[in-house]
Design brief:
Number of strands: 5
CATH class: Alpha Beta
CATH topology: Oxidized Rhodanese, domain 1
Number of domains: 1
């Protein structure tokens, strides 16, 4: 029994370290394909892809960027959704930018090609309209 444990511990430890290293590599790769872009760049390019609002439905109904579609992050990550194409760039925004960054990382691991996040979120967009 002692010999078995002696051999199993290094194997399990090696597998765990390998999993951690592969996870780090995946996160680095997704960060490279996700870009947080300033408001002016976002405005110039948002029509070149899919414009997605991930805020709460009530906030979306209140005020939105013209042409944006509303989806929850949970819906976007669902395997069976086909309304948002994976091969076209996504232009995401939320209220202040934090939720969109987290969502972008998850979407990139799900196979989306390029994801652009509005820096400062809808608040920054709204301030630039004034």
């Amino acid at each position: 029994m002692d010999r078995l444990i002696f051999f199993l511990i290094p194997i399990v430890l090696g597998l765990w370290i390998g999993w951690l290293l592969s996870r780090r590599r995946t996160l680095k790769d997704t960060t490279a394909r996700m870009q947080v872009i300033p408001v002016e760049t976002f405005k110039q390019n948002m029509r070149k892809g899919q414009l997605i609002d991930i805020r709460k439905r009530a906030r979306f109904e209140e005020d939105k960027i013209k042409g944006a579609r509303h989806f929850s992050v949970r819906f976007l990550r669902h395997k069976s959704q086909i309304q948002v194409r994976k091969d076209k760039p996504l232009y995401l925004y939320c209220q202040n930018g934090r939720k969109a960054k987290r969502a972008a990382r998850k979407l990139l691991t799900r196979g989306y090609v390029f994801v652009y996040v509005l820096e400062g979120g809808f608040e920054a967009y709204k301030a630039s309209r004034k």
